[in-house]
Amino acid sequence: RRLKELARELHVPVVCLAQLNRQTEEGGDHRPKMSNLRESGSIEQDADVVMFVHREEYYYQAQPEKIKEKNLAGKAEIIVAKQRNGPTGVVQLQWEASLTQFRNLAYKSIDGLPNDLG
Q: pLDDT, tens digit, for every residue of 16-30?
C-alpha cells in the first residue's frame, strides 16, 4: 500500500515484481493466476494492474516432442489478470530466446534479417 501512496505522491508509475508460489508447476495448467502470487491478498486488493509473462514451452524443456506436438516453440503470453480501469485478457507474443526479446506474433523479418524496430 505504501508503494501506491508513493506513486500518487510523485505522480509516477511504480512497478512491483512478485514471486509466484509453486502451484503453477504442478498439474496440467501452468498458466499463472492471481491466487498464485505470494501474499496475493494484498496484491489483488492494492494493485491497479496485475500482469504475468507466461511461456508454456518452459515446462516442456525436457520433452522436445511435446513442444512440437503442442506447437509451443517460440510462443509466449502476456496475461493481464487485473486492470482496474480497463479490460483483462491475454496477448499472444513471439519469444526470441536468442535475443531475449518478445515480438508481435505477426512479426516477419525481411530477408531473414532481424528488424530492430519490431
A: 888 888 776 666 778
**80/78 Cα distance (integer angstroms):** 6
Grid coordinates given for 23: 502451484
Spatial separation of the C-alpha atoms in residues 13 and 10, rounded to whole Å: 9
**Is residue 95 a contact partner of residue 104, using CB atoms and an 8 Å limit?**
no
Sequence-ordered list of residues with C-beta below 8 angstroms from that of 108, at least 6 positions apart, any chain: none
The model scores a pTM over 0.90: no
SS3 state at 72? coil
Q: Which long-range contacts (CB under 8 A, 24 or more apart) does 52-56 make?
A: 52/77, 52/78, 52/79, 52/81, 53/77, 53/78, 53/79, 54/30, 54/78, 54/79, 55/95, 56/30, 56/31
